[in-house]
Amino acid sequence: AEQQKYKDRKIVQANKYAIEIPLQTAKLSLKVIELSIELVKHGNPNSITDSGVAAEVGLASVRGACMNVLINISASKNIEHKKLKKEIDSIIKKACALHKKAFNYTKKMIN
Fold first, then answer.
1. Could you tell me the pTM of the whole model?
2. Which of 24, 46, 53, 103 sits at a 20 to 30 Å CA gap from 39?
3. What is the rounded CA–CA span in Å between residue 53 and residue 82?
4. How far is Cα 49 from Cα 57, in angstroms, rounded to an integer?
5. What pLDDT score was predicted for residue 100?
6. Phi, psi of 76 (to 5 degrees)
7. What backbone torsions phi and psi does residue 71 show, to the nearest 5 degrees?
């Protein structure tokens, strides 16, 4: 019985970690997209496409990290985990909007 309790605690701890790390990754990747816009606007003109590519990679990272969070909360019965779905949706929506802005700025600066 004691071993089972220990095992259960460790599983809960591992699941928490499996949610927190990709969530943090998604948030940091969103910041990459935000920064890429500033770089396109104000950075070295010779590096504009590099800044645009940063937004592309940032979006892929946001989406991938969010998918990991979603799969890890999908079987959870924890109410807090269910609330994360709204946060994930918001992060993805914001990332897509920022990515579009970065892509359009990059194209505008190239032309």
1. 0.90
2. 24
3. 33
4. 12
5. 98
6. -75, 145
7. -65, -35
Query: Is residue 23 a contact partner of residue 84, using CB atoms and an 8 Å limit?
Result: yes
Dihedral angle sign, alpha carbons of residues 35, 37, 42, 45: positive
pLDDT for res 65:
98
Six-digit token pair at 36? 């890429």
Q: How many angstroms separate the CA atoms of 69 and 85, rounded? A: 9
Instruction: Please state, in angstroms and rounded to a whole number, the distance separating the CA atoms of residues 38 and 40.
Output: 5
What does the block give as tokens for 12?
């809960």
pLDDT for residue 82 is more than 90: no
Query: Tokens 């993805």 label which residue?
Result: 92
Percent of the chain at pLDDT > 90 equals 79
43 phi/psi in degrees, rounded to 5: -85, -170
The type of residue at 48 is I
Q: Which of 20, 16, 35, 12 is nearest to 65 (CA)?
A: 20
